[in-house]
Known about the structure:
It is built from seven helices and 14 strands. By secondary structure, it is of the alpha/beta class.
Amino acid sequence: MKVAIAQITPKTSEKLANREKMANYVEEAARASADLIVFPELALTGYNCGDCFFELAEKIPSGESIQFFEKLAQDLNIHIIWGMPEMSLPGVLYNAAALVGPDGYIGSWRKNTLPGHATDKAGPGAFPDRRFFKNGSGLEVFDTKIGRIGCLICYDIFFPELARLLTLKGADFLVGISGSPAFEKDIFEPLIQARAMENTIDFVYTNLVGHEDETTYWGGGCVYTAGDAARKVPGKLIAKADYKTEGLTFAELDPYDKSIRPVFPVLRDLKNEMYQELRKAHGKLA
């Protein structure tokens, strides 16, 4: 499988312009024979839309952007994942990701965990999630012609339980998309490798890049394989995008190759008691 990381700088609230830019990247990826192209969190609208989110959000799967990318995927024989605001009911929004392929709409995910922390370095609007979006619940794994895919959206990646859940549900590879600002780079970047290593699973990650209003994103998309069985090392980096510029980064993956798992058997060594104790301990926080 050939995957393309599409790192872009969206124009805030300019959905049509962003869609046109994304379509150009999809066409470029298809010309390079990519099977999957992955865009960042809220790539369709930008992150700093404020109250305009309520006007820009669309129904999934009936919205016009789903239909737009469905046709593109069908015409170009490619799978596409992108971030967008979803309207469930009037006034009820989710920070979501959608997946379409050559046969049309496949599925969507909703961001499970919404950041509420802030720092002076974040800049205006760096974490607007809790103001505009409702927490998602449940994480689906979708069957496709290129394997079973699970997706995490930005802050979700900070929670190892979510990546583990998708892995145990049978995902062949994980996709992470984010709109992570520059001050988070050193916090965020090691987690991507850790999620691949601790689950012995391929991980495809892309982030917004450049400047959106006063927010600067750190880019840095990457692809990790499940691991190198010969060297007995999980989580091998095979592609790395630039930290500052837009563009495509390509990688070749075999999502069905899990030869690392017999030599690094973290999944085998899981015990039910771990999760039972975790649930008990977490219950004491309530």
